[in-house]
């Protein structure tokens, strides 16, 4: 294979990988938004065994690890000034923020499960009646329907919150140590304060991260 043809193949492969990472990050944003919505129901009258055991999106951590490896590989291999480098760095910063937010939600869930253990029937008496009628099964279904660019993503056997929190710490530490991407150097591609605009002003290429009526978070 000639050097020119090899270069073309490498560029096409890299572009395909960057596009996969972009779709993977969009999927991660949607799933973590659903997780956050379900987490807010802990300790309320909607809390129960389904919410705690069956509705958690177990694929978040494996999905995050795979996206982490792919972005890390791209940034290490890419040279300064390369065509897709800015796009990958932007994805890196968005992914970093997603991990930090997800970790905060995990910590919140861990605390709420300790405050409201639900190990006995009488524990339900301590739940807060928020006045909201409904369940979290629809949110769990939306999370399960989110498609990743990869054919299969391994799922964790159980929602081990403590281990997940530690695993995210390890991922974040590696992100900061192995790749030097100054957060201030990454320019946004969406309008500032998008969450504060009305629905009519939102670009047609964006959609809500979740279906919660008051949700004003939009993703591609």
Can you tell me about this structure?
The protein is built from 6 helices and 2 strands, in the order ααααααββ. By secondary structure, it is mainly α. It has a single domain (10-120, 137-189), classed as Methane Monooxygenase Hydroxylase, Chain G, domain 1, CATH 1.20.58. α1 packs antiparallel against α3 and α4 runs antiparallel to α6. The longest helix has 37 residues, at 3-39. One of its GO terms (biological process) is negative regulation of signal transduction. InterPro entries: RGS7BP/RGS9BP (IPR026512). Belongs to the RGS7BP/RGS9BP family.
Q: According to CATH, what is the topology?
A: Methane Monooxygenase Hydroxylase, Chain G, domain 1
- What string gives the helices and strands in order? HHHHHHEE
Number of domains: 1
Quick check: average pLDDT? Answer: 77
DSSP strand content: under 5%
Name the poorly predicted regions.
none
Specify the biggest β-sheet.
2 strands, antiparallel
Keywords: Signal transduction inhibitor
Family: Belongs to the RGS7BP/RGS9BP family.
GO biological process, one term: negative regulation of signal transduction
Protein name: Zgc:109913
Brief summary of the model shown:
The chain is mainly α and 220 residues long. The chain has 6 helices and 2 strands.
Primary descriptors:
single chain; 220 residues; mainly alpha; Methane Monooxygenase Hydroxylase, Chain G, domain 1; two-stranded antiparallel sheet; 6 helices; 54% helix; Zgc:109913
Give a topology summary.
Elements: H1 3-39, H2 49-54, H3 60-77, H4 85-115, H5 137-145, H6 161-178, E1 207-208, E2 218-219
Antiparallel strand pairs: 1-2
Helix pairs in contact: 1-3, 1-4, 1-5, 3-4, 3-6, 4-6
């Amino acid at each position: 294979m000639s050097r020119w043809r090899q270069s073309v193949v490498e560029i096409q492969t890299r572009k395909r990988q960057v596009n996969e990472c972009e779709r993977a990050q969009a999927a991660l944003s949607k799933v973590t938004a659903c997780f956050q919505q379900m987490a807010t129901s802990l300790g309320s009258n909607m809390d129960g065994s389904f919410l705690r055991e069956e509705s958690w999106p177990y694929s978040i951590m494996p999905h995050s690890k795979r996206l982490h490896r792919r972005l890390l590989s791209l940034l290490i291999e890419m040279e300064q000034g390369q065509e897709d480098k800015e796009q990958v760095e932007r994805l890196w910063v968005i992914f970093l923020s997603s991990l930090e937010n997800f970790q905060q939600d995990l910590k919140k869930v861990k605390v709420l499960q300790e405050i409201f253990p639900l190990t006995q029937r009488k524990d339900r008496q301590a739940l807060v009646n928020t006045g909201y009628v409904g369940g979290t099964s629809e949110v769990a279904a939306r999370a399960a329907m989110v498609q990743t660019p990869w054919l299969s993503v391994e799922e964790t056997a159980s929602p081990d919150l403590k281990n997940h929190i530690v695993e995210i710490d390890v991922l974040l530490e590696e992100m900061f140590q192995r790749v030097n991407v100054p957060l201030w150097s990454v320019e946004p591609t969406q309008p500032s304060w998008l969450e504060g605009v009305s629905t009519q002003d939102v670009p047609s290429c964006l959609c809500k991260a979740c279906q919660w009526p008051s949700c004003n978070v939009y993703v591609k």
